[in-house]
Amino acid sequence: MPAYSLEVSVRYSETVPGGVAYHACYYPWFELTLEGFLKACGQAAGDISERGYVFTLIDVHTRFFAPAHFGDAVRIELSVLNVSSVKTTFGFKAFRASDGLKVAECEAVYACLDRDLKPVLISKILPDIYKLLLDECGK
Predict the structure, then answer these.
(1) pTM for this model (two decimals)
(2) DSSP secondary structure, 24-64, as one string
(3) Which residue range(s) make up the domain with 41?
(4) Domain count, the chain
(5) So what's the pLDDT on residue 139?
């Protein structure tokens, strides 16, 4: 079961000729879903940044299965797949809302860094977020 989901609508500016959603547009949708998940858990991304930390994407693998088109509603589901002292792996799945067809899936690894872009231990620096991630991992 996903930890969080968000629905986006494919805008014309996000398409290539023929009205198909351009592959790179999925990444902002995934980021919006991650931000929504953190906010829903009481941990807005801006608040984390103000505390001097950031979750930075360090590895991403995406597969595309079917197109999404201009005007389609796309449901993005987020799951927490793995949590370590510095890194968290999130899974994203994108489905066309009209028929439930999976259009893409992604595994994205984020590292927690300080203002100097040095890795930090999430469990020590952001224990509330670390606990939240552990609680969601594997659900």
Answers:
(1) 0.93
(2) GGHHHHHHHHHHHHHHHTT--HHHHHHTTEEEEEEEEEEEE
(3) 4-136
(4) 1
(5) 63
